[in-house]
Predict the structure.
Amino acid sequence: MPFCGRLVPLVRLTLLRNSDTMAIRLKDLAHHLNLSVSTISAALQNRDDISEATRLRVFAAVKKFGYHPNSLARSLVTRKTHVLGVLVPDLSRSFFAEVLKGIDSVTSAAGYNLLVCNTEENASREEDMFRMLLSNQVDGVLLASAHEPNDTAWRKTLLELSVPLVLIDRRLPGLNFVGGDDTGIGFEATRHLYAQGYRRIAHIAGPRTVTTAVGRLSGYRRALAALKLPSEEDLVIESHYHEESGGYEAMQRLLKLGSPPDAVFAASDPIAIGALQAALEADLDLPAKFGLIGVGNHRYGRFLKVPLSTVDQQRSQIGHLAAELLLASMDKKRLRPKAVLTEPKLVVRDSSNRIGFSEILATMDSGKKNAKHPARR
Amino acid sequence: MPFCGRLVPLVRLTLLRNSDTMAIRLKDLAHHLNLSVSTISAALQNRDDISEATRLRVFAAVKKFGYHPNSLARSLVTRKTHVLGVLVPDLSRSFFAEVLKGIDSVTSAAGYNLLVCNTEENASREEDMFRMLLSNQVDGVLLASAHEPNDTAWRKTLLELSVPLVLIDRRLPGLNFVGGDDTGIGFEATRHLYAQGYRRIAHIAGPRTVTTAVGRLSGYRRALAALKLPSEEDLVIESHYHEESGGYEAMQRLLKLGSPPDAVFAASDPIAIGALQAALEADLDLPAKFGLIGVGNHRYGRFLKVPLSTVDQQRSQIGHLAAELLLASMDKKRLRPKAVLTEPKLVVRDSSNRIGFSEILATMDSGKKNAKHPARR
DNA sequence: TTGTATGCGTTATCAA
DNA sequence: TTGATAACGCATACAA
């Protein structure tokens, strides 16, 4: 066969190539060291069929020329990108920010990087970004979905997906999930208010399009039933999850009721903060005449005008567990879907601490709950 | 812009190839349509040298089989990944979470995705992750560096980098930068306290290893000088940036001084919150006897026991501007480095509002500043 | 222990 | 308007 080598421009034969614009390749190192590309590749992987001498030469050259491998090329052949996709509705919400950090602490230790997407609570945007993640050949996906829970088409899509997937915060049946035990949260919060002597307990809920809100509401209702309290529709108001104004307005409506509540379980800390504002403006006496508890254990809850009781769903723990579950289901592909719920932790502060339970006692109280309301898996 | 797979089902039909494990390739479509790979590729890019008829056939097949392009392969040849790297010290801090969201809102609109790294305020970890980003062939990098500002080796590395780079929040000379005007922040905060009649103004600073802390301190000093107030070393305490406990302890030390301050400019809202706690425990009367202002305009500052005055450095704006600067410097490679400082906005609340200036008046006051202390670019 | 040949899925060039 | 072929940078089976 006549000359049929690749037409390699001469420039590339110079060691540093177009020095400024182009990165060093294995080929360049090979040329410089009078070795073959495959030898260098083997040396870089510390394979034991390479002599110590050349291994050292290779590493010296790598250092000297500042070589770093091209992950695109590598991933193209290994079919592994070491990149995971994360889709959340709003990066700036402290919940997702803390979950994300929890995820990262596990995945980065395992050598994975995060391609992070902000879906802006928009379902079609979420689908676009999901497609992008698949195009980018991510090894797995963590998703807090913006789709409505009854969107069966979307659920079907997710079920048929071939990439390992773990849902966070918002659950769909049949899929891996890590999140708070929302029913438990609602149950515990309500039961706590009852234990503090409040008897007319209202609930300011999150939007019913989010599964966590549905779960917390249902926990609230279960607790009312268990405590033999009547369930009044007037005492449940649907609001925004993460805007104080929602809680503020809801609280104002509750106060206008013929017989207003003496306590409120707010589905989130922002809701609770808004409600607190309205309660203070109405000169309610917390916790003597009015009790309030939120969800989320926001960092600044204890610095508020009235330090806020809350239920901690253990955010960073959710991140850790989700990342671990994802890594595990990447390992052995066909694992049956698993749901992991973190245990709700009652954090009692002034806003609901009427009879002087200390946080410690309250925690003990919460400990008993497993008998009555065990976390399901 | 190449084909991005809009309106394409996420799940592919599994007729071709090793059905379950392998994704559909151009080759598979080509085989199915009796066309060549290059024709399909051209059709997907909507190139105008492809007949409308085949273009439609191709798109139909794409939809039918749920094809989505392999970005790795594409990027390998186009030398463009449409991925940007972001390195921040702590994803869960509200500042970086909000900046990140701001970044994402402009980059995602421009078709870029974010590879996000949490450096944990650790310089060597930052270098590792930076290397990883380069391996991943990111098209550009946004960096809030954990390196000490006088680390000349690191600065040299960054200066010699071939990938477009924009620093955020923490500045280094000679490099693109977007962040708050920290000297201006320190100056305005201090001047505001002075305008409210406080005369013995202390500063609880951030760690001097972070340029923002240095800038705010220097703004504080400049203001003292401009206002003919003495600069006393006792009145400056270095603390942690984002832990309330730091501000708490610093405040306690200040209160033990022979002649304690009558006002504190805290370098961050968390510091201010800790200081507020200590001040309230010491029964200080805010704002009558004691004034306090922080930096950051944290979402919950206005709900605190004493609503907190603060200087807003405009977080999401920083994200927007940083992303725009990065995209611009990716466009025309050799742009001389640019520093963009957002204008500090005074937010006056109860903690420093002694003589009853409304927020509006305070804003006007802040407006005048440009005469005395113009933001430099 | 090292080198050769081949292919990963795509784009780009140029000929048909 | 379409198709064959050569890259892109790397890993890997197998030959030397």
Chain A touches chain B through 55 residues (CB under 8 Å). The longest strand of chain A covers residues 83-88.
